[in-house]
Amino acid sequence: MDGNRERLDRLRTKDWWARKKEIAELVAKHEEQYLVVLESWLRNGEDHLSRNIAMEIFRALGTKASAFLVSLLSDRDADVRIFAANLIGDIGDNGTLPALLRALEDTDVNVRVAAIEALGKMGDVRAVGVLARGLEDAPWSVMAAVDALGRIGGDEARTALHRFLGRGEYRGMTCEALERAGDCSSVEQIMPYVGRGEIGGLALRALVTIVERECVMLPAAFVEEKMPVLKDLVQSSDTTIRSAALIALSWAREAAAAPYLIAALSDDGLQEYAINGLMALGKDAVPDIIGAMRGRGGQKRILAKILSMVGEKGLLLEFVDDEDPEVRTEAALALGAAGTAAAQAALRKLTSDAVEEVKAAAMLSLQSTKGDAGNDGLPR
Questions:
Q1: pLDDT digits 0-9 by tens, 7-38
Q2: Between 19 and which of 14, 26, 65, 358 could a Cys-Cys bridge form, CB atoms 3.0 to 4.6 Å apart?
Q3: pLDDT tens-digit series, residues 61-79
Q4: Structural domains in the chain?
Q5: Beta bridge pairs of residue 373
Q6: Can you tell me the distance from the alpha carbon of 306 to that of 286, in angstroms, rounded to the nearest whole number?
Q7: For residues 358 and 374, what is the distance between their CA atoms, to the nearest angstrom?
């Protein structure tokens, strides 16, 4: 014991990396020789370093420490019971489930919360029924139970969360739990709350996450109905809600979504959604695309490509003198199919462009028209 005590004491003088190595060597030995020391450190509220080291070692021991930690769930000190529950949750030993369920009856609400959080980390569906019944406990316990049900997931947990959406004071966190655990059955449950008060953004984010994960489609009528809400939430200070609103806008078939989709092209994480949304709008998005290309935005090349893909190649004639060579390249590639004298003249001009990529694109387009034109490349 004395040798182990000295080794444990030395851990307090080591940096994090050296301590990790020492702990790895320590846990390979018989833990019974030093568990009592770790317990004393766990009880020492004035020596935070020793307490933290004790918790590191308990986590490293894993299931070898489970029985000892379960015994601490009955300790007279509530702080020790809280630490024991937290560590059991970190270790994730499903064999400790009965002990954690008993801890849900603890007289100290903070112990109950720690036990609930541990059950959420453990993810054992056998705890769902008890957690669902705990949704009538003190507020802190209820909040922990909602989060735990979201982490555990499954049909029973979802059903409990669907019912709990009716509790207005907890609706936001219930939406967050369903964002993690929801499935197709959750979509209709959440839809009524999109845009409703303070939790409207959380409901939208949960809805979009579930729809993306489950590969389902929202009803077009719902997206159209929520256009004012989406246009408001796309300005949210919360980046996750702003992203969800933009993704929902990309599913819309309303021209009013175009300016927001164009603005989102500069966000790498949303660019694909924005492109798909503009492509779905097709010709309805053209006026906004042209307006954006006449400005000095940084995504004109992508907009030029979208114009070409929605069948408006001829409109790129306006941009053959654009200052961005990538835009001129896209114009050159598109104008070969325009089939007008003006387009051919512009292409011949672009074969003298100062940028080789533009010249090559113009020459390629001219070559592609020769089968249907005379030697000068003009249609007959």
A1: 787 787 777 788 888 888 888 877 777 888 89
A2: 14
A3: 999 999 999 999 999 999 9
A4: 314-374 (1.25.10)
A5: 379
A6: 9
A7: 23
